[in-house]
## 1
Amino acid sequence: LKGGWFKLYNCRWRKAELKMRVLLTGASGLLGGYLLRELKSRGLEVVGWPGPRDYMLYGIGDLAEPGWIADAFREVKTDLLIHAAALSRIDACFHEPEKARRVNALASGQLAYLAANVGTRMLHVSTDLVFDGQKGNYRESDKLLPLSVYGSTKRDAELMVLKHPEHVVARVSLLFGPSLTGRVAFFDQQLAALRSRSPLTLFEDEWRTPLSLAVAARALVSLALSRCRGVIHIGGPERMSRLEMGQRLAAHLGLDASAIKAFRRDSVPAVEPRPRDTSLDSSRWRSQFPDVAWPGYEDALPEMGVA
Ligand SMILES: NC(=O)c1ccc[n+]([C@@H]2O[C@H](COP(=O)([O-])OP(=O)(O)OC[C@H]3O[C@@H](n4cnc5c(N)ncnc54)[C@H](OP(=O)(O)O)[C@@H]3O)[C@@H](O)[C@H]2O)c1
């Protein structure tokens, strides 16, 4: 059977996959596009909520204005909620902290409550930026010390979601891969700059464990469909700087990397401090989901059409 009735993870299966209806928030976003594709490929019924940019098209509202959420959630009658919507740009959160709090924290708390009330499990997508970056190789139990408004609102969301023991929080690392929605994201800009040999400046002293969008989508859907609870880290297998990512991308595509310039964190004025090393230790995820492929950087690129 497509989707696998009998697929069992260590976390244990919870319901026959094919009968499930999944509500996906943030469906119009970078990760949302990959999640939508992954859910569809498993034969699941998906109701996608895009964000306010496509409001006129779909009639779905703004999570910053929560009056509509409860009715719309009830109407969907979902078995599973994957919450990927967020005000995800760090600078936007800094400039509009109240909006960031409402979208990232309060709406997540409200959705977690609504879902728990009707026995629906929720997977909440969080970030490595809940850490201050002093230590690196963070485990799920490490202390949350966000440096930015974005990180603080995502931390607050986690706390609200985790009040409901049936829900799960996945902290994902920096995601890479081309946008599926036609909206140009950082990776697309980087690719275009490399192809046109335009100057590209990348940090050499900030480290993450980058994860491909395709792998992230597979990992998150498998996690959502499992019985795993609490917090789980889903990062890539290698700790890398943005500079190394750019250089390896150029080498993978046989492009000239000489237009890439390195810069250091302290050479760039920033309104908020930037965490130095938010690499994630993903051993909990790997031990519970060993069958989800975990390719290295170059091996993950062709699957997303970057070859
Ligand atoms: N990208 C990364 O490297 C990364 C790393 C770690 C964690 N994450 C997390 O992964 C999730 C998805 O991120 P992403 O990179 O896909 O971000 P994205 O491309 O900016 O997508 C965010 C989604 O949320 C929606 N949204 C934004 N504001 C909203 C609002 N006021 N009401 C309702 N929906 C709203 C957006 O709608 P519109 O289409 O209307 O804009 C879009 O669908 C987020 O929770 C983010 O914190 C991302």
## 2
Amino acid sequence: LYYRLFFLLLTLWTLHPKAQAQSAYWQQQVNTQIAVQLDDVHSMLHGTVHIDYTNNAPDTLRFIYLHIYPNAYANDRTAYAQQAVENGNTRHYFSNEQDRGYIDSLKFVVTNSQLVQKSAGYVITKNIDVIQLILPEPLLPGQRLQIETPFRVKIPKVFSRLGHLNQTYQISQWFPKPAVYDAKGWHPMPYLDQGEFYSEYGSYQVAITLPENYVVMATGNLQESAEQQWLDSLALSYRNHKPIYSPKDTSIIPSASTLKTVTFTEENVHDFAWFAAKNWIVENDTFFLDGIDKPITAYACYSPKHQQAWKYSLDYIQGATRGYSQRVGLYPYRTIKAIEGPLEAGGGMEYPTVTIIAPVRNGETLNTVITHELGHNWFYGILGSNERDYPWMDESVNSYYENKIAPSAFSITGRNNRYNDSYLAYAFAGSANRLEPSDTASEVYSDVNYGLDVYAKTPLLFDWLAAYMGQDQFDAAMKAYFDKWKFKHPQPEDFRTIFAMVFR
Ligand SMILES: [Zn+2]
């Protein structure tokens, strides 16, 4: 019955004057093409980025904020560096100059819709990883322009997300990228470890050139069939010879002298990350979801010394994809990948269609982390909320589903202590009178409370909301929220509106 009532309400709601005002929702379109070459001797990237920017706002733009996040690692006074010290992590602060990172060689050219090219200057804001690109002429509502610049990145050692450990590379938050402009205005934000991101949707086409014996895992779909065949052959040989695979250190595999270029494309995503290593075990498999006619290819890549923990990783990936697809909404992409890397920012980090997982000891923990990180394809990837200001909209809602899906998706023991762990953490913080409100911005939380409130307390609040609404109504509201806001930027009020509307 609630379904019928729900659809009736949905119809009535679209007739409501306030809802009609909301139909004027707009968002910017940002399509990105990058060509980049990895110099793995000096840990440098040499690239050019081409950004096709459409101004769908009712406002004229005279500048565009761009994030140039590798500069977060440039010195000990950046927002990232200071936050790390406040949170008790002094690795970057006391690091050597040569282990830090930066981006330089920017030289912007802007092309307007009449194909007139002009060079464009930029202003560095109070944060050296945020710049304001001054447009040579105003960008009117509905108009489009092309922004192009070369760039060079010195890849830091792994302090947070972007980085390398010897010749294993995690290339994320790495290229010049527009900040979001939405109905609330510009959202420039310096890179932080504690506090995530907010980005515009569009298509990506990224061509990566590097020595040919690297395996590359990235956002989106690989274009070269020869590279695809090579990955398939690696996966097949591991499947056939599993027990005899001997652990190798990445530092002792020399890089091939011949280079290759691998290209990845994806639509309807708001970021692009890639990861490369020479010693990964590669596993892959295809699977179908109810409601789609094309298979999804799952990849798991990890170092040989952790093959025991990763033994069932393809099952964890499939289980998470099915669980979120059933409970929230269908997975819309053709690939889903989990790779192991030397991450320092938490146990895992999500990017569209690809996620990086820090080394873990056992399969059960790995299942939990993979489920959580791949779940971010829904709460971050498809539902592109402002993570920095409203961490509950991605981390807390995602943790609520992780607690439900990870134990059932692929459980060795069938037990789930996550609920009890979360409650204990919540009760502990509460008894010490240290809780903070659930709608606190990421960087305002103390580091302890960021973990407690965002990942433990607030997921419990969603359990209580589900109990209060009834699980059926909660599920219906979440599906309605997904359908209305997929590939868009939902705000807290949009979430509340749908939940209040469905609940009767
Ligand atoms: Zn998360």
## 3
Amino acid sequence: MKFCSECGARLPAPAATDAAKSSFCPACSKSHYRNPCITVGCIAYHGDRILMCRRAEEPARGLWSIPSGYLECGETLEQATARETFEETGAVVDPERLDLYNVINMTHVEQVCILFRIGLSREPRLRAGPECDEAAFMSENQIATLNLAWQPSLGMEIRDFFQQLRMGDFAIRLVRLASAAGAEYSCRSYTLMAGNAASGRR
Ligand SMILES: [Zn+2]
């Protein structure tokens, strides 16, 4: 942020070591906080295929990803996930049926990404939205031939997902990812009780 959102005064450039800290406007004293963004992503699957889309915009234009995007103010995480999935692929998913899947600390891009999963009983009609130029359900073998956005971290997530899908046993995982290349990767799994996450819903 270069200018104060309150009074328009130019903000002093932070020292490199303080780039992640809050700053004060010298003119009106407003605090300018720097906080990570929250992004959401959806693994929607039908049988042994998951919903993928090819990005038509930067970043990662032309590369394949799962439907994902930024949480907007006033939305729940599940509503944002359903909205992004619809906007990017045309697939309607019920936010009430989304199960929490992964929480990913991504300090290198100042984001926390929350992934949800949802099993679909029938394949929805797809229509790529303005931010995508293609959307399709794909098998693990098909995905292995794609150029993925945010490789290798997304590739790792997808590989792990298919492994859990084959076992029919999902966990909620807390992941730390300190670089796009997967450096300082750590993952802690929280096993779900017998049945599925819906059994614990109130
Ligand atoms: Zn100001």
